[in-house]
């Protein structure tokens, strides 16, 4: 458990806060490129600021918009109702992987690393987002907990992977015929290893099986608030947890394919069945009990909330309250990545307060050379799981139609 003072310090992100100052030192996903179709002025709510995406003299930029004092943080006015504050700050943007990133910090923005989602051609990436009614930190922390998938995302039946395009945990594990859903269900207590890297944290979950074999799942925390995880053998997910304000955030995801071009129409249709426009709020939410079905819970899923794992995560993180009360928590062995991340965040908040930006991950010229990261599932001989995991990743990259070498 931690003090209320420390909980406030690591969760609050408004201008002038320690955590907000760290987040403002990085490019933040502000909008989907798809949102440009909504009008010439696209409202954006980001890091406690009310902004608008517009075409400026140097290209797209984020200007400050006038908002009423009682405007809800998730209010998105129509384009013709937006008023721009001429005295407010204007922020630069960059378009990458179907997303428009903005830099809200002072000084020059850091370089983009050569992550797979930024190196892949447009044909092999698809971006989407969804609104969660909770603080950004608890949204991130569920993504760096490898053990939760065996419980929260427990499926009691295993569907044919051929029918599961665009769905996480519905593939087969590694090169075996074991469905991921079965593997997660039968081996629920992974050994978890965490290594600090030049981009954040590498998280390895080892599910030791029979006959001297281990399932190796490598995921990553990309500082300050992103994760990179395997979706299937051919696809990874890079997902940011972007604060709207202290009590609301977006998950913003880029799906990256190492194999065939992404079927964007199918993936967009799948996700728009679960979300409304223009705010990308989920149709399943606390106001309708996330469509909880006790009959489904008895026979098909752990939560009884459908097959979309985003809904499971949403229920879990929103159920903690808008800002999780960490003064009463008791972290255990499976929370090792969460513990390591909080320590890293606290170090970086201290560094920014002391003016030492060189301490921040990916905040120097060398960041552009960072590639990957490795993020995959593999079945390996227990005695040689590290080499087998790397070999599986290299084999996928070698067959990739775009340059995915590391």
What are its keywords?
single chain; 406 residues; alpha+beta; Rieske Iron-sulfur Protein; 2 domains; 8-stranded antiparallel β-sheet; 22% helix; globular; oxidoreductase; Ring-hydroxylating oxygenase subunit alpha; oxidoreductase activity; LigXa_C; Cholesterol_7-desaturase
Detail the topology: elements first, then pairings.
Elements: H1 4-11, H2 18-23, E1 28-32, E2 42-46, E3 49-56, E4 59-64, E5 91-96, E6 99-102, E7 114-115, H3 116-119, E8 125-132, H4 136-143, H5 180-186, E9 191-196, E10 200-208, E11 213-222, E12 226-230, E13 235-245, E14 248-257, H6 264-272, H7 294-299, H8 309-318, H9 336-353, E15 371-372, E16 377-381, H10 385-398
Parallel strand pairs: 7-15
Antiparallel strand pairs: 1-6, 2-3, 3-4, 4-5, 5-6, 8-14, 9-10, 10-11, 11-12, 11-16, 12-13, 13-14
Order of helices and strands: HHEEEEEEEHEHHEEEEEEHHHHEEH
Give the end-to-end Cα distance, rounded to a whole number of Å.
Answer: 39 Å
The total tally of domains equals 2
Report the helical percentage. 10-25%
**Number of DSSP helical runs:** 10
Mean pLDDT over all positions: 92
Specify the overall morphology: globular
Number of strands: 16
The structure class reads alpha+beta
* Unreliable sequence segments: none
Strand content: 25-35%
Give the radius of gyration.
21 Å
Q: Please describe the biggest sheet, giving its number of strands, its sense, and whether it closes into a barrel.
A: 8 strands, antiparallel
InterPro entries: Cholesterol_7-desaturase, LigXa_C
Keywords: Oxidoreductase
GO molecular function: oxidoreductase activity
Domain LigXa-like C-terminal: 103-387
């Amino acid at each position: 458990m931690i003090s209320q003072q420390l909980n406030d310090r690591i969760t609050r992100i408004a201008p002038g806060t320690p955590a907000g100052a760290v987040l403002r030192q990085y490019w933040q996903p502000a909008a989907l490129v798809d949102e440009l179709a909504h009008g010439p002025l696209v409202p954006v709510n980001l890091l406690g600021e009310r902004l608008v995406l517009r075409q400026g003299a140097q290209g797209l930029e984020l200007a400050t918009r006038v908002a009423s004092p009682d405007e809800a943080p998730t209010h998105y006015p129509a384009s013709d109702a937006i008023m721009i504050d001429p005295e407010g700050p204007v922020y630069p943007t960059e378009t990458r992987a179907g997303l428009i990133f903005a830099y809200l910090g002072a000084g020059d923005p850091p370089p983009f690393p050569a992550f797979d989602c930024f190196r892949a051609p447009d044909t092999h990436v698809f971006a989407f987002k969804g609104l969660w009614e909770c603080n950004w930190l608890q949204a991130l922390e569920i993504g760096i907990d490898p053990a939760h998938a065996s419980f929260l995302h427990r499926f009691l039946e295993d569907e044919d992977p051929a029918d599961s395009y665009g769905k996480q945990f519905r593939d087969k594990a590694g090169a075996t015929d074991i469905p991921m859903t079965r593997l997660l269900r039968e081996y629920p207590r992974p050994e978890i290893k965490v290594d600090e890297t030049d981009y954040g944290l590498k998280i390895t979950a080892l599910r030791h099986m029979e006959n001297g074999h281990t399932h190796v799942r490598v995921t990553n925390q990309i500082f300050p608030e992103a994760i990179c995880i395997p979706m299937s053998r051919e696809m990874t997910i890079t997902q940011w947890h972007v604060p709207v304000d202290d009590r609301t955030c977006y998950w913003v995801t880029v799906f990256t394919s190492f194999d065939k071009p992404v079927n964007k129409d199918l993936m967009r249709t799948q996700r728009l069945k679960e979300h409304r426009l223009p705010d990308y709020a989920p149709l399943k939410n606390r106001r309708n009990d996330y469509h909880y079905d006790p009959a489904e819970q008895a026979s098909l899923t752990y939560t009884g909330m459908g097959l979309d794992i985003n809904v499971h995560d949403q229920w879990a993180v929103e159920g903690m309250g808008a800002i999780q009360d960490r003064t009463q928590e008791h972290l255990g062995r499976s929370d090792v990545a969460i513990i390591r991340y909080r320590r890293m965040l606290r170090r970086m908040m201290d560094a920014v307060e002391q003016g030492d930006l060189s301490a921040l991950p990916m905040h120097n010229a060398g960041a552009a050379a960072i590639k990957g990261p490795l993020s995959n599932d593999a079945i390996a001989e227990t005695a040689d799981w590290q080499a087998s995991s790397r070999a599986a990743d290299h084999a996928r990259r070698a067959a990739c139609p775009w340059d995915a070498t590391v």
